[in-house]
Write a structure and sequence with these properties.
Blueprint: E1 4-6, E2 10-12, H1 26-33, H2 36-45, E3 48-50, H3 51-57, E4 62-64, H4 69-77, H5 88-93, H6 96-113, H7 121-132, H8 136-151, H9 154-171, E5 181-185, H10 189-200, E6 204-208, H11 212-229, H12 233-242, E7 243-245, E8 257-260, H13 266-276, E9 285-288, H14 295-298, E10 308-312, E11 322-327, H15 333-345, E12 349-354, H16 361-377, H17 382-392, H18 398-405, H19 407-421, H20 430-437, E13 452-453, E14 456-457, H21 472-492, H22 498-509, H23 518-525, H24 527-541
Parallel strand pairs: 1-4, 5-6, 5-8, 6-7, 8-9, 9-10, 11-12
Antiparallel strand pairs: 2-3, 10-11, 13-14
């Protein structure tokens, strides 16, 4: 038996992403086929490898182009292909003492990215290999029971649900877009990264700004990004060739889609529209990356307001999968379909939302961060606040998130939403304004709530030695307002489908995937319990916790 791979094939074991480990004998066969440490790494991470790497590991015996497969098969039959022999070390690794040492190392690595109480599958796989890794037959037998046990866990059920949510959201893109040339106005952190991602995905992307320096900075960031995510140097070069500095905005005339990504000020955006709209070709679409300004306000100066649409990306653009596609009551349906298709073209998930303050994601995240500020006012240590969210399963706590987003942006979005939504949001504290005025903006300036070094917050133990550990009430104060907003957005028709709300919060905020999304969590916990807890919090802390009227129709 020999395995012949075509040159662009990829290999991997995605089961861990579904809360499982490989079944049907996969764990035993794979860990005996190649170096067991390499095999376990692939099964534990879910990462994929290319055909060349697969051959070097011994997973493939030959690599050929598709048109030469028949010849390779004939060579295999004739005995002309030689297999990659496993290292003698592989056998030593399967011996009891070696397995025990390696298994402990694997558990430490797994703990860095997944807690056992939330994600049991990696730990079950490590246990399986540690106990039975020296015997293929014993491991084959034990694998069945281990797999069956994982299959019925809430984590696996919810992660399988998340897989189907992703597929459902992919379908919202339709059959793919017809955008070939994108022009981005504004080469700041968001605009530059949007253009870079579009170029990476094969589109021509022209990038304009008032000054050359931001464009130069964006090209530099793009080159660094491509160096990390594109393996072949020639492909890196081609992507950079598609990303075109455009100080004079000549690209506007030929662009199918113009994306505005300038600062969040109505007059600045409308001034930009006045300059570009007359120069756009017939049929071109004007999109805004606004995170908080309603399109009804932005469209007032446009000659063709029906061709304005929101495309709200999230930071960092290269990692966040969600893009909110924002409509207003005068939107052209064909424009919206084209933009959803464009989002699919660039390997992102479109979330159709109606224009309203904060759309879905920012409206849900803002109370999460502002509530954390009020906890700081109550003298709760910032690391304890973050711990309360991380215990629930959030990828980072609200204080660290605020620093990552930028305290100036948090303040601007918070003020904008509070002006429109009123007391359902807590006010931003005065000391936050003082921090912003002092230039302490978070990660981008090196200091916000945390001091940042090499892109990481410097966290120390709480000042009281950890006595004030995160409590369930703290977690509820942070998480339940997010869920309350999701119910409100469904009631208001901002998003039409509760499953898509869950998908959007997972892919746009990293909301604990093993919980299946905020609304799924509410169903699991019990809507009555969530509503009762919100009422208790409202009585204790204020009306911002009052349950939305949409809970009465929630199921």
């Amino acid at each position: 038996q020999m395995r012949i791979a075509i040159s662009d094939a990829r290999f991997g074991f995605p089961e861990v992403m579904l809360g499982l480990h490989p079944g049907l004998g996969g764990t035993a066969r794979f860990s005996h086929l190649i170096n067991p440490l390499e095999a376990m790494t692939l099964m534990l991470t879910g990462r994929t490898i290319d055909a060349r790497r697969a051959k070097s590991l011994g997973l493939a015996d030959a690599v050929t182009q598709e048109r030469h497969v028949l010849g390779a098969v004939k060579d295999a039959i004739a005995g002309k292909l030689s297999r990659t022999k496993p290292s003698p070390l592989s056998g030593l690794m399967r011996l009891g003492p070696g397995r025990g040492i390696l298994a402990n190392r694997m558990r430490k690595e797994a703990a860095k990215s997944a807690k056992q109480e939330h994600y049991p599958a990696p730990y079950a796989l490590i246990d399986l290999w540690e106990k039975h890794g020296d015997s293929r037959s014993a491991m084959l037998s034990a694998e069945k029971a281990s797999f069956a046990k994982l299959m019925v866990t809430p984590t696996a059920q919810n992660l399988i649900r998340v897989f189907f949510l992703r597929e459902q959201m992919k379908k919202l893109a339709g059959d793919g877009g017809d955008i070939r040339h994108v022009h981005v106005i504004g080469a700041g952190a968001m605009g530059g990264d949007i253009a870079a991602w579009c170029a990476h995905q094969g589109l021509r992307a022209t990038l304009g700004d008032m000054k050359p320096e931001p464009i130069a900075g964006a090209i530099k960031r793009a080159a660094e990004l491509y160096g990390k995510i594109i393996r072949k140097k020639i492909d890196q070069r081609d992507a950079l060739d598609r990303l075109i500095p455009d100080l004079d905005a000549d690209g506007v005339r030929g662009a199918d889609l113009v994306i505005e990504a300038v600062p969040e000020k109505l007059e600045i955006k409308q001034k930009g529209y006045a300059a570009v709209e007359p120069r756009m070709k017939p049929g071109a679409i004007l999109a805004t990356n606004t995170s908080s300004i309603p399109l009804q306000d932005l469209r007032t100066t446009l000659a063709r307001p029906e061709r304005l649409v929101g495309v709200h990306f999230f930071n960092p653009v290269s990692r966040m999968q969600l893009v909110e596609v924002v409509s207003h009551d005068g939107s052209d349906p064909q424009v919206l379909a084209s933009v959803r298709g464009f989002v699919g073209q660039i390997d992102r998930l479109p979330l159709p939302v109606k224009s309203a303050p904060g759309f879905l994601v920012n409206r849900a995240l803002t109370p999460y961060m502002l509530e954390a500020m009020l906890m700081l006012d109550e003298k709760v240590d910032k690391t304890v606040i973050d711990q309360a969210a991380e215990k629930f399963g959030m990828p980072m706590g609200p204080i660290e998130l605020a620093d990552t987003v930028g305290l100036d942006i948090c303040l601007a979005v918070g003020d904008s939403l509070r002006a429109k939504l009123g007391d359902v949001l807590p006010p931003a504290p005065d000391w936050l304004r003082q921090k912003v005025a002092a230039g302490e903006l978070g990660r981008k300036t090196g200091k916000g709530f945390y001091v940042w070094k090499d892109g990481k917050p410097q966290k120390s133990a709480p000042a009281d030695g950890g006595a004030s550990n995160a409590t369930p009430e703290m977690t509820d104060r942070l998480i339940l307002p997010m869920i309350n907003v999701c119910v409100a957005c469904l009631r208001e028709g901002i998003v039409e489908n509760p499953d898509v709300v869950d998908g959007a919060m997972i892919f746009g905020t990293g909301f604990a995937p093993f919980r299946g999304g905020p609304l799924q969590y509410a169903r699991t916990r019990g809507a009555a319990d969530v509503v009762a807890t919100l009422r208790n919090l409202s009585a204790k802390y204020g009306s911002r916790f009052e349950p939305d009227s949409g809970w009465s129709a929630f199921h």
